[in-house]
Amino acid sequence: MGIFQLPNLCFLSIRFNPYLTGYLPEFHRGSHLETLKLAGTNFSGQLPESIGNLKSLKEFDVAECYFSGAIPSSLGKLTKLNSLDLSSNNFTPSTLDWLGNLTELNSLSLAQTNSYGNIPSSIRNFTQLNYLYLQDNELTGQISSWIGNHTQLILLNLGANKLHGPIPGSIYRLQNLEFLSLSSNLFNGTLDLNLLLKFRNLVTLQLSGNNLSLLNSQNATIPLPKFELLTLGECNLGDFPSFLRYQNHIELLDLDNNKLEGHIPKWFMNMSTMTLELLSLAGNFLTGFEQFFDILPWNKLRSLNLHSNKLHGSLPTPTPAIFDYKVSNNQFTGEIPKVFCNLASLSVLELSNNNLSGKLPPCLGNKRSAISVLNLGDNSFSGDIPETFTSGYSLRVVDFSRNKLEGKIPRSLANCTKLEILNLGQNKINDVFPSWLGILPDLRVLILRSNRLHGVIGKPKNNVEFPRVQIVDLSNNSFKGNLPLEYFRNWTAMKNVHSDHFLHYIQVNISFQHNRLYGKPLSGKCIDGEDSLPTPKEDEGSESPLEFGWKAVAIGYTVGLVIGVIIGSIMNTREYEWLVNNYFVRLQRKGQNLKTRLHRS
């Protein structure tokens, strides 16, 4: 660490070495250091208060490291700084009042720094500012009108905060903006889209996730900016904005929840056909396509999200580049086209809650498939589940629930060593308890309710079966015999309920519908992690159903997942749906973070 004490050191850049560990030492007066770039390393610890001694420092970049503790207020004394980036660390919550007199800054990035409070008024004095990143914090209050004085701003990102109120009209003075993000806040009122379209250099515009209304004229006579990233979700549009017909460079387009209705226009299908990678039209009232295409026209389309509309007919066929395909909660009919077997890059396939039928394509589980999330629930698929799941397969989520599937649970699922969620509930599966699934190391959710499963569950063969399971739902089947005590002793993940986590209770009918399992009541102490389960009843001849002495199954928030055991009545599916949706959100955030990092670099 003595490198920081070299007396003549002016420039040090060790960025983007993720395995390089270290910390910052105490700094002494007299240092000549002007540039210090540590971004993307494994540096940790606290930023020392003595950093204020680096009076010559002009560039300080520690983004995406592992620094913790408080942001030192002495940073506000480094009046020669023209670039400061503290983004994506583990700092303790603090306000931005320490910014003080950094009036020479032309780039300020404090994204994901646990900052809260109002946007400090001192920023109004940063007249040289070109780039301002404040996204992903807990900032509150309103945007002050002085923001319009920063006419040199090229990038303004205030997304994912708790800012509220109207957007000040002075924002229309920022004619040099190339990137503007106000998404995922609490803004209300109206924005004049026609005035924003006068920003000739604007490439990225993000307004989704507020309560804004866009004034959208159908007049497009002015020269338009060439958008690449455009998110206008929840902006009360009512119609497809006509200016989109002239856009040929869009890579990401989000028009979610805008009360769009009827057919997707023909001209829209001809927009940005060579560049569009992500398209989301979810949560509208769309019924179909004005022009039918054998294959969707966007050659580079990686993500298609049409869920929660009224779309009908056969499934739209994506191009081979598709990675994420979501069309749940529509009215699509017919079978899954065979062309889906050739989509080698497909990772997320969401077809749930449609009117699809036929047999499941066996290709969905073969070696060539890259699918990690496979949700075909709430359709009319029939026949056996294909026995084609191969070793090394990437599946993490499988949901075939609420269909008409028969036969046995395919033993090849044991090859899916990354599987986390398996939901086969509400089918016609005729099999015994799949104890062989116990070898899966990451299985957390196993839902088999409302099938024709039967027989004795039996004791586990070893102490490591289902090592991470947190939800087991066996309700409404025909199991009989003892409920093995050993499973409850082995399922330690269900005991992992910490006092600082939120407890949620699902009401359970104590008569228990359609299983004939026997045993004594479970002690409530197991919820606290104590191994205090009673010995099962030995009388196997009893015909009375199992009677538990409790009215609810405790479910806890632990590592972001719901936990519990359901062996009686059918659980409310909202908890499970939240679990799956949370998985998708994590995937989307990873993609958004990647986009941000690429833009910043």
Automatic annotation (TrEMBL):
<keyword id="KW-0675">Receptor</keyword>
<dbReference type="InterPro" id="IPR046956">
    <property type="entry name" value="RLP23-like"/>
</dbReference>
<keyword id="KW-0472">Membrane</keyword>
<protein>
    <recommendedName>
        <fullName>Disease resistance R13L4/SHOC-2-like LRR domain-containing protein</fullName>
    </recommendedName>
</protein>
<keyword id="KW-0812">Transmembrane</keyword>
<dbReference type="InterPro" id="IPR055414">
    <property type="entry name" value="LRR_R13L4/SHOC2-like"/>
</dbReference>
<feature type="transmembrane region" description="Helical">
    <location>
        <begin position="548"/>
        <end position="571"/>
    </location>
</feature>
<keyword id="KW-0677">Repeat</keyword>
<dbReference type="InterPro" id="IPR032675">
    <property type="entry name" value="LRR_dom_sf"/>
</dbReference>
<dbReference type="Pfam" id="PF00560">
    <property type="entry name" value="LRR_1"/>
</dbReference>
<dbReference type="GO" id="GO:0016020">
    <property type="term" value="C:membrane"/>
</dbReference>
<keyword id="KW-1133">Transmembrane helix</keyword>
<dbReference type="Pfam" id="PF23598">
    <property type="entry name" value="LRR_14"/>
</dbReference>
<keyword id="KW-0433">Leucine-rich repeat</keyword>
<keyword id="KW-0732">Signal</keyword>
<dbReference type="Pfam" id="PF13855">
    <property type="entry name" value="LRR_8"/>
</dbReference>
<feature type="domain" description="Disease resistance R13L4/SHOC-2-like LRR">
    <location>
        <begin position="31"/>
        <end position="113"/>
    </location>
</feature>
<dbReference type="InterPro" id="IPR001611">
    <property type="entry name" value="Leu-rich_rpt"/>
</dbReference>
<keyword id="KW-0325">Glycoprotein</keyword>
